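OP here, attaching both records as promised.
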Amino acid sequence: MNEPVLSEDKKGRDWTPGAFGDRYFVQRLTLDFAGRTAEQIADAWVSKMVAAVRAHDRQHLITVGAIPWALTWPTAKPGIEANTNLDFLSLHFYPKSGEVNKALKALAVYDVGRPIVIEEMFPLNCSTAELDQFVEGSRPLAAGWIGFYWGKTIAEYKRKTESIAEGMTLGWLEYFSRKSPQMAALTADK
């Protein structure tokens, strides 16, 4: 699961706490805490998922894609993503314009002694130049960066870009391909 969240919904019984556009990206781990703390629920869930994976695969790394709540609440502490059963932390960062330093400060909260991968990022709320400042500023802590790729190449976007969102995605792919030769190979027309 990507972006699990810990919040109850005893009345509505809704596993998905809200849409972003027309998509649902987060899901609750439980609808009822039943007297357990958020930490107990997170630890039990991660432990169960890791045990299930390890029963069939002892080799591949395990992580959970997580929202860095310290970006929203500066006093937040690492939660699900800091579980010691996970091999590395996978964090999602969308810095806001004018707040790159705030995002870097939030990232530092997750320095818990294991590799950090910024595995979801995009210039959604800032310019590509500001996102680049975040990438460069995160180098002392991040072991790697992964961004969005929706399956359409740079050349395809250049031939036909129909919306502002597609224009943003084109700019993002051009930026990311300049930063990463591997990304350039993936997004090029074959």
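Record two, same layout:
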Amino acid sequence: MSVKLKLISIVLLYFGLNNFLYAENVHVAVASNFSTTMKLLKISFEGITGHRVTISSASTGKLFAQIVHGAPYDLFFSADSARADLLVKKGLADKSSVYAQGQLMYVAKDIEQKKCRASLRNKPTGRLAMANPKTAPYGFAAREVLINLGRWDALRQNIVMGENILQTFQFISTGSAAAGFLAQSIVINSGELGGYCQWRVPDNLYQPIKQKMTLLNRSDNNIAVQAFFRYMNSKIANKIIKESGYIVN
């Protein structure tokens, strides 16, 4: 057997899928901030294994509620740790693990890069966009930042909240909001914020956004689901996630 064939066999054996004839489907529920990255992972995983991946994306809070009420997902990719761990406590999943750590960025239109952070101290001249803190972890982090900077009370009347981070991005990219807080992955992958200053918010201004994935109990016996869970810890997946703007331990 050639070296190339041996490598292919090892990869397929690792994922428990050395026969494409038994391809199955994996239905993943993905927090909005990670949806673009998940599309890249889907292409990679399907190419390696022959299995198919269906993606459903929404805010972490909405997906969590859907799962609790019986939505037929196999894997849940939360934008935080709390809701993933809560599914384990509720007996709906038996394991969870961190797959990425998100980073928060502040962007503002028509502001010099060197004045980006300082613009938060100025009197607001337009809307400030952020995701809803009640359902979206990046929104929760944005509120923490404003509170820690002593700007929450001064700016809260100018805040427009998106249902999730993608809607928040739409508010900013369409000009409905002059500034806002986004996931760094959105800023990196969008390519639509050339006229905006960008400030990566220091980690000490908000709690770490450790994003966890859970394998739901209903899918314990699905070999494709098990394979995808393992794939997420592979070097291939980690490289894709890092290049999308996340920290991977």
